[in-house]
Recover the amino acids of this structure.
């Protein structure tokens, strides 16, 4: 094989004929040797994306061996873990094994890290056939190696928190970081978080408070979750509303002190665009973190409502996002309690 | 029929069982009588969305009578023009016939206007069976009436420009207005407009200049369009690149003086997210106006590239958007020439 020139995006490891980025590639080059700006990780565990694992479980009717065999086969064929049905991957945990001389990631051999870029673009080799995985959940013990590019991101796992909690926080750390940035741009705003009782939602509420929000409204789908979020003490008002019903959502937010200057959408159900737009004040901002967001529903919805709102695609990367999220967890018992109850 | 309480979104005219906004509704109430904040328009012409018209043409193999019959049938069944296949509508031109006492739109009986909200949410009755339409293009002469809601938008057609040019400008006027706002937030930025030779692209270049851009880069798909855009004098650099090839686009923008502080995506082809992100500087902004944008490709793409860029869903509504776009056309001969050449 010839050795292509390295590119910080990892383009040099794409084996497809067309020029595509690693995430869009059919197949990646998984050779052990590093390009100068790369890092190799000794893998300990894969965390499959929940939607991907559920799809595999459904497809194989819960046959654990078949699930395991399919994950091994996907990674062998594509050089990365990307569920062909859901398109999603997950993240991994491991120990830094080698750091290329030009790597900008600031990692040291021996660091225990989690990747903050998706497995869908991470070259990966499984060496143990996933023999230690029972196929019962998305936590996959794994021996093998993975490669990070110049523009990848990884975070060192802190010592003072259970690893599972840290990982669970890092998985959603883009949301509080971007929420913090957006809320900081307003003067003591009202902030509504749709799905405020979830992982990214509770962290986003805490981030909004730290960024100077005057009034925090948490929206949850049912009374049980409302009780949990009230107990966590993260919001000034907790309201129950179906986020897919635009008028119900608008009216609920208004009753709780809205419209919001900043509305953060953290629920993974389709059809929340209209309600989020209607719940937001003129010159306000809606941040969409849900992968179920429809671009055209948001764009045409705002136009159709003559709504002068800024709408952001929730970028999962903001510098310092993992550190901020871990800090929020350490400082807010309510956030920690919600996370621990979800890890159950 | 009972008379429901009015809502500025037009919810009171939704006839569906579920609570949905007019755009998502299966059927709207088209009664002539106005709610207090509504306006009725005497329709002169419909401008069908181009994608919708092409779909109808393909479906009926160019049979003009069948195309006409289908549009009449859709409007009769749904109370609005929304192509069930493409989901899109278009806009209309007409004269204000009656203004409800509480209408906030500032219109006067006799004003000749175009609607700036989609036909997909506009109650519409066709009275002439579209007898005067030859079915050959998306300009549809029509007698009938339409209703605007409290939160709708309409613009008075100016006297000093050919009506066709005005309409064509108003159709895309959200793009230059939002571009102007975003560019104004940076200090003498570099701005790249992907699809700079098109209608929304050329207006966005002119808007970026007015908002204080230091350097304007126009990206076009082939040499012929490059020559036209160079002749229009709207960009400092015009480069030819395939916007679907992320590396080619990044390198082309870099060569032209990038990366860009603001990248505006105005081309309606899928797969431009990665290239737009890579062409944009750290802390820069990408504005997606293309309806072919994939929300998840943008979100996961930026995360996968560790790109600290703000990504905006191009909202078609910004206050004053129609006036700004018409001004830009009047002030820039280059914009006007491009529009006139496209109206051919």
């Amino acid at each position: 094989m010839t050795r292509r020139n390295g590119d910080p995006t990892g383009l040099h490891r794409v084996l497809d004929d067309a020029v595509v980025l690693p995430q869009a590639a059919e197949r990646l080059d998984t050779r052990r040797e590093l390009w100068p700006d790369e890092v190799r990780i000794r893998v300990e565990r894969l965390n499959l994306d929940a939607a991907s694992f559920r799809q595999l479980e459904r497809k194989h009717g819960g046959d654990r061996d078949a699930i395991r065999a399919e994950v091994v086969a996907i990674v062998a064929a594509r050089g990365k873990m990307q569920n062909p049905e859901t398109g999603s991957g997950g993240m991994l945990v491991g120990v830094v094994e080698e750091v290329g001389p030009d790597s900008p990631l600031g990692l040291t051999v021996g660091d225990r890290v989690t990747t903050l870029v998706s497995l869908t673009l991470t070259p990966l080799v499984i060496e143990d056939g996933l023999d230690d995985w029972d196929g019962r959940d998305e936590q996959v013990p794994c021996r093998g190696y993975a490669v990070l590019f110049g523009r990848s991101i990884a975070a060192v796992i802190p010592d003072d928190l259970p690893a599972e909690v840290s990982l669970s926080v890092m998985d959603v750390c883009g949301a509080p970081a971007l929420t913090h940035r957006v809320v900081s741009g307003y003067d003591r705003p009202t902030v509504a978080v749709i799905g405020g009782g979830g992982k990214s939602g509770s962290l986003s509420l805490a981030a909004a408070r730290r960024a100077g929000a005057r009034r925090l409204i948490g929206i949850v789908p049912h009374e049980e979750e409302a009780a949990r979020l009230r107990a966590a003490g993260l919001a000034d008002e907790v309201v129950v509303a179906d986020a897919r019903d635009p008028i119900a959502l608008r009216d609920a937010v208004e009753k709780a002190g809205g419209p919001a200057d900043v509305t953060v959408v953290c629920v993974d159900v389709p059809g929340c665009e209209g309600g989020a737009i209607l719940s937001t004040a003129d010159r306000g901002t809606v941040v969409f973190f849900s992968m179920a967001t429809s671009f055209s529903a948001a764009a045409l919805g705002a136009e159709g409502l003559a709504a002068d709102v800024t709408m952001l695609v929730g970028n999962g990367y903001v510098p310092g996002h993992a550190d901020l999220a871990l800090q929020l967890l350490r400082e807010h018992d309510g956030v920690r309690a919600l996370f621990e109850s979800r890890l159950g």
Q: What stands out?
A: The longest strand of chain A covers residues 39-48. The mean pLDDT of chain A is 94. Chain A has two domains: 11-161, 174-342. Residues 64-78 of chain A form the longest helix (15 residues).
